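Allow me, if you will, to draw on your knowledge of protein folds for a short while. A protein sequence and the structure tokens that stand for its backbone fold form the material at issue. I would ask you to consider whether the tokens describe a fold that such a sequence might reasonably adopt. Thank you for your consideration; the sequence and its tokens are set out here:
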Amino acid sequence: MCLHTPPCPDPTSPDREAAHTLASHPEQGWSLLCNGIVLFDDTGELLPDGHVIAPHRPTDLVLPTMPTTPNGRSQPNGGSQPADLSRPNGRSQPADLSQRSPAA
């Protein structure tokens, strides 16, 4: 019986993972919640009645990265062409400064 105010969600409710943590064992990859659920680091769950809920959230997200050259360096210009490091702006053509507004 949960003594928290407001009470923790029931193990059968959709928000069951919002219950307070009673015991945490991150070195073993699990936590015991107030509603009797054992929550695993891979987002799997073991319910108090013995039912198992398989992992249900993506844990291995692939974040977009900048294109790289064959030597592993990032290309700040989006990878369309190698950066020309002999120029201060990294482009093969000089920057067009004619479009700049005059300093006030």
Q: What stands out?
A: Residues 1-12+21-56 form one domain.
